[in-house]
Amino acid sequence: MAAKVDLTTSTDWKEAKSFLKGLNNKKRREHYFTRDFIKLKQIPTWKEMAKSARIKQPEETVFPKDNHLNDKISLFRGDITKVEVDAVVNAANSSLLGGGGVDGCIHRAAGPLLKEECRALNGCETGKAKISCGYRLPAKFVIHTVGPIAQGEPSAAQEAELSNCYKNSLKLAAENKLRTVAFPCISTGVFGYPNDAAAELVLNTLHTWLEENKDKVDRLIICVFLEKDDEIYKEKLPRFFPVDACGGALPSRL
Ligand code: AR6
Q1: What is d(CA 31, CA 109) in angstroms, rounded to the nearest whole number?
Q2: How large is the greatest C-alpha to C-alpha distance in the chain, in angstroms?
Q3: 103 ligand 1 Cβ < 6 A
Q4: Which CATH code fits 13-56+68-240?
Q5: Domain locations along the chain
Q6: How do residues 2-17 score in pLDDT, each as one tens digit?
Q7: How many other C-beta atoms are found inside a 10 Å radius of the C-beta of residue 24?
Q8: 185 lines ligand 1 (CB under 6 A)
């Protein structure tokens, strides 16, 4: 086993990474940047969420109902840096050296070793993804992806790039046997991609990927931060991930 490393003072990312790799889940928790982390079991699946909120199922859906997939997807509103999963996805820029928004939050929470490892990744192209250790995050790994900059109506190329961010992140997750992955709303902040169009594209991409790869993951979490995105996803999820219809008079929103 690697020698004990103090993650708050270490400057050697390789040593810290190999130290963390040798720890079990309980021991890793001693190194999180926060005690206030969120366990996977605290995040309901979409199936559970839809049932407890008795959502109204629209007649027209994009995909047929598949309850197995509804167990594999979650909508969670909160801070992605606190979620204890195998990997969180970072909405980075092509330098991979940090920035504002969720990128800044992830780098601050993980600590400076994350930037040191990112230097060795040599940047990342739009739509592609690269992986690093999570350091002091409750997430074991960070998958860094770079979304398109799309002020206004996105072009077909930008749509493909945003979809590729999700697909390439999931490809990396599967290659590394990471079974629980949380995504922020990539490109919809500083990069200006319209929230509604992004949500349609994300739900389409995740459903299609899950149909083909469902045995490779246990849970994909759509982590929204803003109330606006929470509302958009709650409205769209029943069309992309249909659930059992409930009887009686139902609220149209959760
Ligand atoms: N947890 C979850 N989501 C968050 C958090 C958080 N802690 N903080 C912000 N968000 P953005 P982009 C949401 O701007 O549009 C950076 O400078 C936020 O509300 O972070 O892909 C990078 O370095 C929004 O819904 O990413 C790049 O230069 C979503 O995360 C550029 O911004 C994405 O917003 C990338 O821009």
Answers
A1: 11
A2: 61
A3: yes
A4: 3.40.220.10
A5: 13-56+68-240
A6: 578 999 999 999 999 9
A7: 7
A8: yes
